[in-house]
DNA sequence: AATCAGCTTGAAACCGGTTTCAAAATAATT
DNA sequence: AATTATTTTGAAACCGGTTTCAAGCTGATT
C-alpha cells in the first residue's frame, strides 16, 4: 500500500504538500498539484482514514450496535442507516453485542478508539450506562426513553402502536385479545403494554398477556403457553413479526384457523410479514425513517454541531392484511 | 478518556513504563508496577487499540463483508464468526456491501486502514479483485473457488448439496423437479446446478430450471414464472430457505398443496426453515462450522502464520421435514 | 575500592497521516 | 530597484500508543 511519503517522493514535494492537495486545505502551485495528482494515480495511493482520524478526530464511520444480527427488524434499520451514511460519504459498521455487557463495552471502546463519528445503539443493559457516559461520541439510542446521557433518542410511537393494534382487534370483533408482552426493560415493551391496557380498559375488556422475548427462538414455547393459559383467546398481539411464524405453527398443529378462529396482529412491519401465508396484519414502524434519521442526527452533529432533536417519536401505521378480518366483512 | 500520559504522570513514571506494564513486554520494578496499576484503576484508562495498531499492525478485529445484512444465512454465519472471534479476544465488524463494488472497495480499504487482522468476505463482484490483490490482510472467501489471491476458501460442498437434494426428490417420487438456479457467477450457484444436472441425467430425468437471485424479494416473481413455464412441476429445489416463504404463498394462492401436489427442498438450513408451516425439508450447510473455521483461519494466520488449509469444503446434510414425503410413506 | 555484567528506565523515534510555524519565493507597492 | 505584503512551501510537532537505544542503577566479582 502506497503511503503519503511515497507520493511525496515521486512528485518531488513534501508530504505536507501532498496532504494539502488531497484535502484542499491550502493553495498549492498548479504545476505541483498536477505532479501530485499524477503520483497519486501512479501509486494508487489512498489515504489511511484511520491514521488520519488520529489527528482529525473523525473517521467518517458510524457504528451501529445491535443485540443480535439475527433480528431482521434491526437489520432493516441497519440497511437504512447504511444508505443514509454512504450517501454522505460515511461508512457504517455493524456490531453484534449479543446482549452481553462485556461485548457492548468492547464495541463502544473500539468505536471510540477508531474515532467513529457516532454510535447508534439499541442499549439493552442499563449497566453499560457508565460506558456510555465515558464515551465522548454522539450516541443515538433506539430503544430507551430520552435522557441527558444520550445525544438523541429515535423511536416509533410504541404507545400508539399498542393502542391501534388492540383497537383494530376489538373492531374486528375480538373479545379476548392476548398480548405477547415484550421485555419490560425496553421502553418499547413498556409503552406497547400501556397502550394495550388502556384500550382494554376503555372498552371494558380484560387485559391478558404473557411475557415474551424479542428473539425468535422463544416463540414456540410462548405460543403454547399462551394457548394453555388462555384457551378462549380469539386474538393475539405478537411481540414482533418474526414470532408469528411460530404462532402459525402452533395454531396449525392445533387446528385453529387464522383469522377465522383466532386473529393475529404482528409488530414491526418487516418484509417477512408480507411473505407469510396468510399475509400478516401488522403495526408498521417507519423503519426507513428511523434508520435515516438516526444517521442524519450523527452526521449533523459532526458537521454543524446542532444539538436539536433530542427526542424523536415517529408515527406508526396499521397495515391490514389477511390475519385480521372485520366481522362486518370489510377485508383489506 | 484517560490516555497513557495521564497514567504515567499520576504514577510518576514514563509512558514507556506504563506500556511495558500493560503489555508485559519487559520487566518493571514491582513498586512501580503497583503504582501504575493503581493509576490505571483510578483513571479508568483503556489503551486505544487503534492507535496501538498503527505500530503493532494488529487491532484484534476481524472484518466480515456481506452483500446484504438482510441475508439470514450469512448473518447466522456471522454469529458463529463473532463467537469464535470473541472467545479469542477478537472483535468482529460486519459490513454491508450491497453488491456495490464501490462499497466493497471502501470497506476493504477501511479494514486495511484500521489494521484488521483479516477479512471474511462473500465476494460477489469479480471487479474487486484488484482491491483484494492490493490488500495485505489475510482474506477468507466464502463463495468462490480457491485462488492464489485468497488466503483460504471456506465453503460447503455445493455439488453434493445439489445432488442429495435432487436424489431425495426423485426418491420421493418426483418426475419433474425444477431447480431455482442461483446466480452462476457464484460458485455455490454453479456447483449446485452441476449436482442437479448430473443426478437428472443419471436417472433419465429432464433437467428443468429457472434463474433466480439469492435475495428474497425476487421469490414471488420467480415462483410464478416457474409454475407458468413448468405447470407439470412436481418438485421445487429452492434457491435458499428464505425464498420458500414466497413459494408457499404462490402455491397456496393456486391451491396446490405441499407436499401432496408438489414437494419442496430448501437450501441453507437456517432456523427459519424449522419454523415454517409445513416445516421445510432442506440441505443443511454447516453454518456454525463455516463461521468458526473462517475465523480460526484468520486467527491462526495472525498468531502462527501457518498457511495451510487453503481450500475447505465442508459436508452438507439433508434434513427431511414436512415438505417432502416418500410415496412409500416413510415420513421423517 | 574498582570494574563489569545485568536490569530497569526514560528520551526519542516510529506508525501514517494533518497542521502549525517560520522561512523562502513571489507579487505588489513606493 | 528596493522595500513590503502575500503566497507557497517544507521541517517539525502532533494524534496515542509501542519499541529501540543508550544511560543510570544495582549487585556481583576481583
Automatic annotation (TrEMBL), chains A, B:
Please list the residue ranges annotated as the HTH lacI-type domain: 2-56
An example molecular function term from Gene Ontology annotations: DNA binding
Q: Where is the HTH cro/C1-type domain?
A: 6-50
Q: Which SMART domains match?
A: HTH_LACI
Which Pfam families does the record cross-reference, listed alphabetically? LacI, Peripla_BP_3
**PROSITE patterns registered for this protein in UniProt:** HTH_CROC1, HTH_LACI_1, HTH_LACI_2
Q: Which UniProt keywords apply?
A: DNA-binding, Transcription, Transcription regulation
Q: Cross-referenced PANTHER family, in alphabetical order?
A: HTH-TYPE TRANSCRIPTIONAL REGULATOR GALS (PTHR30146:SF109), LACI-RELATED TRANSCRIPTIONAL REPRESSOR (PTHR30146)
Please give the name of this protein.
Answer: LacI family DNA-binding transcriptional regulator
Protein source organism: Caproiciproducens galactitolivorans
